[in-house]
Amino acid sequence: MAVTIDFVPAWGNRNNNHSWNVLIKDGKSYAFEAFWDQDRWKYKRIYNNQTFDHLWGEFRLPKVYRHTFKNNIEGPIADKRINPDNIPPLFKNIKIKDVSSEYFETSDVTLSLKSTPSKTYYAYLCVFGYQQWHPVQWGKIKNNKVSFKGMGKDIIYLPAYYENGKLIPAGEPFLLDSKGVVTCLKGNKQQISIFINHVEGAPVYNWDLKNIQLLAGLKIHGYSSKTHRIDNLLTLSDIIPLKSVIYPIYSNILYDRITATFRSDTIAVSEITFYDNQNRIVIPDSIESNIILFNQEDSLLFVSDRIIASGIKGINKDRYIKFYFNQPIDISSIKIAPYIQSRVKNNGYFKLYYWDNGWKEIGNQDTKYNFLTFKHVPDNHLYMLRNQRWAKQKINTAERIFLYKDGEIIWY
Q1: Domain limits at 355?
Q2: Residue 71, C-beta contacts closer than 8 angstroms, at least 6 positions apart
């Protein structure tokens, strides 16, 4: 049996990179961690760009490479036309090979480039981390187009050129979604409001695990005053993701009261939104709970304000929240989002940026409340919120990039 090392040069939804061990037996690879994790053989499962780990949350990998004894000379390093100063360090290493397809389903991406510099023969796909873009794959340019082979999905990429040790954007950033569809993030003329309460994205899952798990086992019941019927509409599992989830409801009964019953007398939730059979949001006429909120600035109304950055946490010995509707409603689905502790309140001075061939400042705010509100923001861009207290330290900091859709931050 052979053992080697696989590595992701840069995460697609986190900062930094990572490497791990791989056992090779009968032509198959078995990824494992030698030391620090409880389940040391789970990495093919949690690195498949689809699932998430119950302790650490989601991992998204743009590429996986393997260290080899054999030389693998390809791409720009094999092209005598290319000055070594114009090759990213990753692709100067001839003792690595691409093994991404052993971990996850990949997609090839073909792009049209803008303003290709003279005598430029290669472009690179990059992911974001620690305030920089990091090349993870090369592609050969032909007729102002370039194809990148075997890319990981559910990740935001930026195409770029590389000259004299510096990256030059070669196009707009884009989302390669979980189905392999490319969506260019070039903005539009519409404006939106953005609500946000932290800057770090996926790592928050581990830090906020206790809050997130307070949704485990949540039960949703519907009550009809006409028939005095009570139906169990939904019970959440013990595995709760960081982001909101829309759960389908299979009932044709009209309800005028919905009750959310929690497993613990400590209640924490960001959002519970109801949709009717035409997928329209149905707003409760009143909300009832005996909860004693930990933060006096919060309101029970936050639980159904369609803003994921808000939310409530507190003690309720009765363990319930009741939603009342003056007119009975038919429910086709319910969106539920876990409570995420604010990391902006009294934690510095923040600036919001959007990407337009570079980061452009939109606005800035001090942090008096649990979440920030930015109005008149250009829509359909890539965004980043920076903590200016961190920025003054002049180091690469941990802020992640995000999209904004339906009142929710989508972290990448």
Answers
A1: 191-200+343-411
A2: 94, 95
